[in-house]
Design brief:
The protein is an all-alpha fold and 106 residues long. The chain has a domain of 39 residues. Helix content is 47%, strand content 0%. The protein has three helices and no strands. The protein is elongated, with a radius of gyration of 31 Å. The two termini are 61 Å apart. The model has no long low-confidence stretch (mean pLDDT 77).
C-alpha cells in the first residue's frame, strides 16, 4: 500500500479544521461556564412578585399609585391642549433604574 501524500492545500485544510474545532470547543466551555454562573446568580437573587401594584396602603390609606377612570369626552380633552398650553407643558420625569452587573470577581 502506498503512503498518503498530503499537498500543502490538504495540510492547510486539515490545520483550519483543527483550529476551528479548538475554537468551537473553547466557545462551548465558555458558554457552559457562563450558564452555570448565571444559574447561580439567578438562584441567589431575591424573589420578586409580579402583579398589579397596590393602589392604596390599607394601614395608612396613603396612595402610591395614582389611577383614575377616564370618562371625559376625547374632544374636550383635545380642546384643552391649546398651542399655548402645549408650549408651557413640561415632560414627566423619567424613572431611573439601577442595575448591578455581576462579574467573575464578585
Amino acid at each position: 500500500m502506498r503512503p498518503i501524500r498530503l499537498t500543502p492545500a490538504h495540510k492547510m485544510m486539515a490545520s483550519a479544521v483543527l483550529v476551528s474545532l479548538v475554537i468551537l470547543g473553547g466557545a462551548s466551555v465558555t458558554a457552559a461556564a457562563f450558564a452555570a454562573r448565571l444559574d447561580k446568580v439567578v438562584q441567589n437573587a431575591p424573589a420578586v412578585k409580579l402583579g398589579p401594584a397596590p393602589t392604596e396602603d390599607p394601614g395608612t390609606g396613603d396612595s402610591s399609585v395614582v389611577s383614575k377612570d377616564l370618562t371625559d369626552d376625547p374632544a374636550q380633552v383635545g380642546g384643552y391642549w391649546t398651542p399655548e398650553r402645549l408650549e408651557d407643558a413640561s415632560p414627566m420625569p423619567v424613572p431611573e433604574l439601577s442595575i448591578d452587573i455581576v462579574t467573575p470577581n464578585d
